[in-house]
Amino acid sequence: MRETSNSISKQNSQQPKQFRGDDKKVMKKSLLAFVLAFSLVLSVAVPAFAATPSDVAGKPVQSAVEELTALGIIDGYADGTFKPENNITRAELAKIITIATGNATAATLMQNVKPSFKDVKANVWYTGYINVAAAKGFIQGFNGNFRPSDNVKFEEVVAMLVRALGYKDKYLSGAWPYNVLLQADEIGLFSGLDIAAGTLANRGTVAELASNTLAAKLVTYDADGNKYFANTNGTIRYDGSVSLINKLGSSTNKVVTAVSLNSDKEVSLNGSREDTAASFFVTGGLKLADLLGHTVSVLYNKDGDVLAVTDSQDAKNIITAKSDAITDVATATYIAVNNDAKEYEAAAGLFVFDNTDAQGNTYDLADDKEVKLYLNGDGKVQALLVNDWDANLVVDETVAYKDYTRVTTKNGGSFKVVSSTSITLDGNKAALADLKEYDVVDVIANAAGDAVNVVATRNAISGKLESTGVVAGDVTYKVGGKSYVAIGDADDLVAANIGSEYTYYLNKDGKIVYYGTVNAVDNSQYAVVYEAPAATTDTVGRVIDGVVSQGWFKVVYYSLKDSKKVTAFTKDADVIGLNNKLVELKFDGDGNIALTPLEAAAALDLTSTKVVNEVTASKIVVVNSPSNLNYILNSGTIYLQVKVDGADSTVTVVNAAAVSKNDDVAIKADNGVAKYVVVTSEGDSAELDAVQGLYISRAQVATSATESTYSVNLNVKGEVKTYAIDGGAYSALATQQKYDIVKLTDTLDTNALYETVTPVLRSAESAGLTVNNSARTLTVAGGTFLVTDATQILVTQKTYDSIEVGSFTDVRVAADGTNYGTGSNQYKVVVQGSGTTYGTLQEAGVILVVKY
Predict the structure, then answer these.
(1) What angle do CA 57, 58, 62 make, to 5 degrees?
(2) Cα within 13 Å of Cα(665), Cβ side
(3) What single string gives the DSSP state of each residue in 139-172?
(4) CA triplet 520, 526, 528: central angle to 5 degrees?
(5) Is 698 left (phi over 0), alpha (psi -120 to 50) or beta?
(6) Distance between CA atoms of 113 and 726, rounded to whole angstroms?
(7) Is the peptide bond before 177 cis (omega within 30 degrees of 0)?
(8) Which pLDDT band holds residue 522 (cuts at 50, 70, 90)?
(9) Which of 388-392, 539-543, 702-706, 723-727 is least confident?
(10) Phi, psi of 109, deg, nearest 5
(11) pLDDT tens readout for residues 459-509
(12) In 376-500, where do the E strands start and end?
């Protein structure tokens, strides 16, 4: 039985809800929360494994929102937020209750049934849900009305959830609403929540309440009003073996025994392969590689496919140690570690992995290896991982290939990052794009050469080398008055180097593993010019040695090297017109500015900016006509925030985080690499990201006699998602056929609606096709397109009955890739560009493959 609190007072608010804790009951409950995703369809859906919405990061509801997003059914709005403080309506809550209790099919059947409430119309989106919820007794009305558009109060949410568990108001103690609040508190629905009776319930509160409810036990009553718990057969028993989750699926605990799905999309649990659902995910932002050997809570859908897995391994049952040699370790009775300092009993069927590769019964464990022991609830070893790290590698650059990315290192080696690779940076989950030059990484690679785990550290110091020495056999450097151990390629500085400045890169243990010349903010003479002459007549007199010298130009600039405002003089007319520009200044022997015409012409005009269309850790894309411009970002890129206002201009050195989509920027680049990114004004974050997909349907909902809301359903990456549009876009979609390719874009305003529709008709099948397999390009009548990881490839039959997610192989029939095939293998393609270009090539946004 789960623990419950004894009070509905402040005690509850002091018990933060745990989503990733060590208690298995808590973890199982967290997994059950994901089923709420089927019901919280209150906003625009986003793709699986999307980023955490910005407005829930670090909040108690974060994990639930992440998990719902990963499920790919709901989560948040197109602007990247979840809006947990937004209120919901009674109709929306009816939908939540109906689907969470396993009655979605019944709601569909009752969509056209005349409602019992006077203010609920037949065949509206919420009709079926309200009919079911009313028939089941979950909801009640007000004098024959339901008031579907009213916001719902906290106690009304609680009442509906308590009734969904089988509780009857007439058998609860006390008067409304305390009867339902007391019952909810008794069964733990308020765990981690503040009681807020009388206030309107918001999205975040409803998500957490529903999560707790799904873990609670179902009840039933006999004819005399005696309460019982029911078992899975529906007979009355006291054991409480049925939770609300059992209406939707089933869950159990198993051990993860492979770091990725196989080619058939099967997950390995307890050594056996099991089918996964189309929307399978690993919760909490983790990957299977993070969970190898762990006990996990496994959620199955009603078809018996694995829907999700959640870590439920107790942290106290993870042991890191040094191995003692054992022969045939998988059949050993006991596992001894740390020179027999501790011995653990082995569970039956012990799983053994060497660098994540499964080992058989004859595997011999060598002495003094780093091992991790995962214990089950009985304290026995259920899995043993042997880890041989390739340590202290220093990142140089990344190169993307078709199915993997090669990361080269300054140590001379490299490793492959694949989709299943788990990456952490300074102890936090990270992605490949987060890795930077000079990061220090430790890598575990499997027998296939794929990196399974990458643990990165970003820690550097700069300063003069004050001394070198050897302490207990370790080379040491003193920098800034502190001694550091230097290892590997970093231990070759000697007395002759003392006094020189370096940047030193440290591993996770604080040891120097690499060094280089100091990476200062900028050691050049680049400057932002505040004031410069506008014409040859704008000269001033300058006193030199007590004598006024005429014909000088005055220039005021901000020196990036010295981080200060400087006033300088020159007789060089090439400084004319340099105000509000970023320029590399040159000086003569007397310290006066001396530029050539070419050097002046190379200045970057900060009043001529472009809008940021996309920015990642390694790339920035700016809007340009006819095609956008792409620049590489690296550790040498310098970021400035500049207010362009003549003498009142300001310049601030910032970091990459200061650059966002829609900002106005000026960029100075060298061979495609951005040397300077200058932000001159912050953009309007209200603009929605463009979206592409296959047209499914459109909808109009009247909100009053004169107003309506509009939406469109698109198939995006195999999932149907709903997007809010304006009336103009709705009208523009009137002639679209199902499975036409559609691109939605938004103008720079604040209404959060898509307004522009760019279609490519499904009938626009190309009359010719050339495919270059190695270059991953395809040429059709509309031009040559580059197929990237972002390209959506969707496959349908000529009858246009259904859509499947495809791959590049679906547009490669003949060996030479130059025809459509024949007979039953014949197909045609329709392509729409994404709007992004790489060099001279358009990126393919969506490819529709039509098979005949």
Answers:
(1) 60
(2) 31
(3) ---BTTB--TTSBPBHHHHHHHHHHHTT--GGGS
(4) 115
(5) beta
(6) 31
(7) yes
(8) very low
(9) 702-706
(10) -65, -30
(11) 888 888 999 999 999 999 999 899 999 998 888 888 888 888 888 999 999
(12) 381-387, 390-400, 405-409, 414-425, 428-430, 440-445, 450-457, 460-471, 474-479, 482-486
Helix axes 24-32, 203-215, angle to 10 degrees: 120
| Per-residue model confidence (pLDDT) at position 72 | 41
Closest alpha carbon to 22 in 385, 314, 438: 314
Kindly write down the DSSP assignment for every residue of 463-485, as one continuous string. EEEEEEEEETTEEEEEETTEEEE
What residues are paired with 409 via a beta bridge? 395
- Give the count of beta carbons closer than 10 Å to the beta carbon of residue 574: 20
The answer to whether 604 and 582 are in contact (CB under 8 A) is yes
Rg of the chain, C-alpha, whole Å: 32
Place of tokens 């018996």: 304
- SS3 label, residue 89: strand
Query: Rounded to whole angstroms, how far apart are CA atoms 40 and 716?
Result: 19
Q: Please count the other Cβ atoms lying within 10 Å of the Cβ belonging to residue 203.
A: 22
Distance of CA 606 to the CA centre of its chain: 33
Q: How many CA atoms lie within 13 A of 187 on its CB side?
A: 29
Please give the angle made by the CA atoms of 299, 305 and 307, to the nearest 5 degrees.
40
Give Cβ neighbours of residue 648 (< 8 Å, ≥ 6 apart): none
Q: What is the pLDDT of residues 738-772, one digit of tens each?
A: 999 999 988 655 567 888 999 999 887 655 677 88
Give residue 75's pLDDT band: very low, low, confident or very high (50, 70, 90): low
Neighbours of 619 (CB within 10 A): 13
Q: What is the pLDDT of residue 50?
A: 40
Question: pTM of the entire structure?
Answer: 0.49
Confidence of residue 62 (pLDDT cuts 50, 70, 90): low
pLDDT band at 416 (very low <50, low <70, confident <90, very high): very high
What is the C-alpha separation between 621 and 167, in angstroms, rounded?
A: 57
- How does DSSP assign 547-578, residue by residue? EEEEEEEEEEEEETTTTEEEEEEE--GGGTT-
Could you tell me the sign of the dihedral formed by the alpha carbons of 162, 165, 170, 174, in that order?
Answer: negative
Where do the H-state alpha helices sit in 559-683?
597-601
DSSP 357: E
Length of the chain: 852
Mean pLDDT of 454-458: 94
Cα–Cα distances in Å, from 197 out to 141, 177, 185?
Answer: 19, 8, 13
For the chain, the average pLDDT equals 81
pLDDT at site 38: 36
705 phi-psi bin (left φ>0, alpha ψ -120 to 50, beta other): alpha
